[in-house]
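Tutorial handout. Part one gives the primary structure; part two gives the three-dimensional structure as tokens.
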Amino acid sequence: MTTLDTSNLTEQDYLTRAVTLSEALPYMQRYAGETVVVKYGGHAMGDPELAKLFAKDIVLLKQVGINPVVVHGGGPQIGKMLSRLAVESEFVDGLRVTDQATVDVVEMVLSGSINKEIVGNINAAGGFAVGLSGKDGHLIEARKLHRTKKDPDSNIEKVLDLGFVGEPAVITPHILDSFLESDIIPVIAPIGAGPNGETYNINADTAAGAIAAAIDAKRLLMLTDIAGVLDKNGKLIQEMNATEARAMIEDGTISGGMIPKIETCLEAVESTLENPGVNAAVILDGRVPHAVLLEIFTEHGAGTMIRKVQ
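Part two.
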């Protein structure tokens, strides 16, 4: 564990730090004992320095009594490994078509190298992290993802076969319950098992949202490579409710790759009789150092919050 060099700090520097800690107290009290699911990916995971800062932030959350659960992606790393092994893959509507050879590599990268790197960073920062995939303890029971695409010429919808691309069918959080009662931080790779034991690659955003809803998390934090949701003038929208979010999708304010992220947030915050849902979901800019701490411990936050309709 590294030791901070404080030799050049002035008395004012120390005072500033003390004030910052004092101002964070109400937020620590607000989140004490609560669970926060963090979807980790994008630039925040690809930059070594940001990765180390992220690990320290996750350890800090646990240290002050918050229960962080990390769910990670790894698209770029999967692509590099597929290229290195000369395994060809293609994308359809932004989703990787995953045959048997590809899903073997996906599981190796997500559950292996990436997962253990994140676990190692958290442990090096003083935490106690354990790596899992959705296949451990029946955490994510998956089903094949079915998508259709309309032919622009004939207007006929065609069923897309994406291979071993799945979506959560059932989340069984018992294994997480035992971790949340300890000092262990779970780090989850978005791999699920199908009804016949087959392996499915699941979008990390989707997996994080489903897990957050299943464990009644206080917050779902989605680290991305953008500032958050922008209005039609390019200004950051700091907060909206589910009804407003759907209206923005309808009028085109929210478009492109942001739509599935917002839909994941909406599914997480929506309540049912069986599941009260997540209190709020936040789209965060993972390129900003300490984005997670800014969101949790300051009034300003660091992205766009989507709340359920009260």
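Part three, for discussion. The chain has a mean pLDDT of 86. Residues 61 and 234 are 32 Å apart (CA to CA).
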